[in-house]
Amino acid sequence: MKRNMAFSHYCLAGLLLLGLSSCAKLPSGSSGQQSGGAKAVALPVGLMRLPQPQVAPPVNRDNPAIVSVELETKVVTALMADGVGYTYWTYNGTVPGPMIRVRQGDTVELTLKNSLDSPVSHSIDSHGVTGPGGGGKLTQTLPGGTSVFRFKALNPGVYIYHCATPMIPHHISHGLYGLMVVEPPKGWPKVDREFYIMQGDFYLSGDPTQPGMHEAVVDKMLKEEPDYVVFNGSVGALSEENALRANVGETVRVFFGVGGPNTTSSVHLIGEIFDRVYPEGASEPLSNVQSHLVPAGAAAIFEVKLDVPGTYILVDHSLARLHKGAAAFLTVEGPENPAVFQSVVNTSPSISGGHSSYSHCVGMPGLRSGRFSGENDEYHVIDAVCRLCTTGTDPTTIWQRWFSNSLLRAISKVSVASAANNAGANSGKDQSR
Ligand SMILES: [Cu+2]
């Protein structure tokens, strides 16, 4: 009862914000306030990750125009991580939703359809809209309904759009966000490649590492304790065959937004320095930036010329989130550039194997205590990572495998178990297995 009252309170706040007369109920499929207890439902056969949204091409237009944009909110079931399914609410079936790209001065006619299959109402509030609610009030749309509104894109920049139906952060935490890019009249300087990345935080019912289907939950979201913090909708969405790709000598531009609902992002590209960052998509760029803070509900433009081949990792430098999935991989191909970067000497002896050899590599409690048993325990999981490490595999490759295989989930799970064991050891409990 207390929880229901809490929900009503937040719902009321949303209603007041939007001036609405009714409040959408949580869907029967959503676990609402509950985060634990129930066992996860088995995954549908053949469940995949969400498809990736495309970068919209530059506008290349000399004059303002009327631009039609059509979005449809729909439920999509897909993988958050290997073996971990999630019920997403999406714009057009991707997280983030489609990139809307227009020119300053354009008039945008935005049509929002809400699929008949949707369990609740949805809407859209674009931060690039001038007018009350950013469209959030005008577009409250029931399942099976359609709403249309027009706005003039007055300010150039890069803006978040998101669902603004109460309970708003609960809707956002299903994946209902995207970017609207409003180009200045002459556009931005030409670059060789553009990428579209958005960070989001997700809160799963039950044990988030447990195989099976999971729903979005409210209680963890209100505590701001995400299970997953990811780029483009899932762990490993931008790794291995879906990694970003470029060539040495090219300049790339990243449109980067944070859908949230809660986390901010300290955006950093490991091994590179951003030549230019347009903070919040502002008209005046910063130069030579190592990490740049992007708030929740905001976006920025990052540009970098790539001088050295190899694999680079884009991270949120609040690095615990790396272990929750926040990494995108950029593979750069081309000739080596020793004038800029080269190894001179590394005296590390080669490591042939053996449990003790790895203890320096990952100082986890179980490794130090030497308690190993079973093929899914901590040692065997860490061993799988360290074996790659000690055979000279490029660490970024290891990370990609970590994300694209089940290792991330497995390590999360054993880390939790290990911490629990450690707590037990400290309290004098029997630690024998
Ligand atoms: Cu919604």
Automatic annotation (TrEMBL):
EC id: 1.7.2.1
InterPro entries in UniProt: Cu-oxidase-like_N, Cu-oxidase_fam, Cupredoxin, NO2-reductase_Cu
Gene symbol of the encoding locus: nirK
Family from the record: Belongs to the multicopper oxidase family.
Domain of life: Bacteria
Molecular function via GO: nitrite reductase (NO-forming) activity
Protein name: Copper-containing nitrite reductase
Enzyme class: oxidoreductase
Reactions this protein catalyses: nitric oxide + Fe(III)-[cytochrome c] + H2O = Fe(II)-[cytochrome c] + nitrite + 2 H(+)
